Amino acid sequence: MQETTATRLADIRRRMAEAAHEAGRAASDVTLIAVSKTFGAEAILPAIEARQRVFGENRVQEAKAKWPALRERYADLELHLIGPLQTNKVREAVALFDVIHTLDREKLARVLAEEMERTGRRPRLLVQVNTGEESQKAGVAPDAAVALVALCRERYGLTIEGLMCIPPVEEAPAPHFAFLAKLGGELGLRWLSMGMSADFETAIRFGATHIRVGSAIFGDRG
Ligand SMILES: *Cc1c(COP(=O)(O)O)cnc(C)c1O
Hints:
It contains 9 helices and 8 strands. By secondary structure, the protein is an alpha/beta fold. Strand 5, helix 6 (145-154) and strand 6 form a beta-alpha-beta unit. The radius of gyration is 17 Å and the shape is globular. Pyridoxal-5'-phosphate binds at residues 35, 37, 58, 82-83, 166, 196-198, 212-216.
């Protein structure tokens, strides 16, 4: 059978359901975020036609260039920001995204809270944790995560839905997923955004509620 976006999506959904079943979880507890960064509308439309509704982008400018037109055609799309957010892009991000996975510092919490207050738009928020403590990677340091979530809640009145992580590429992801799940439990958070094309089944085993899958759906980004 020839592989298309639709057949690849069907395959991912089947593997998600299997991994959830094996973990004693309901398949409906895990949301598939189709990561469409670098791909244009012509690549995204077949996924929408295959009933995919939740998409992820890592850059605000790129998302702004492609999604408003698609959202006009399909009212029920949900858009997630999964890449780093600079404070000077907060206005555009709050206007465009339904969920922001990359809150990782106090200044960003403050600017997000101000913009959400100003506009009344309330994207859901996750705190990104740099579980591998990689200097080049975004995310709050693991030992500062509890304090950041408390600041978000108490000083800025923000509701934090969950945690997100991107394990180091050269390490086994399972310990990172286990750590994030434990931290989320301690903080009373419902959502865990973890797992990508190469490791989403492992992430589901460790409690992922949102997996972020790009190349396994859309192909290599080249
Ligand atoms: C690109 C990206 C993904 C998807 O990666 P794939 O390996 O293509 O599935 C997931 N999460 C983040 C934060 C990304 O930037």
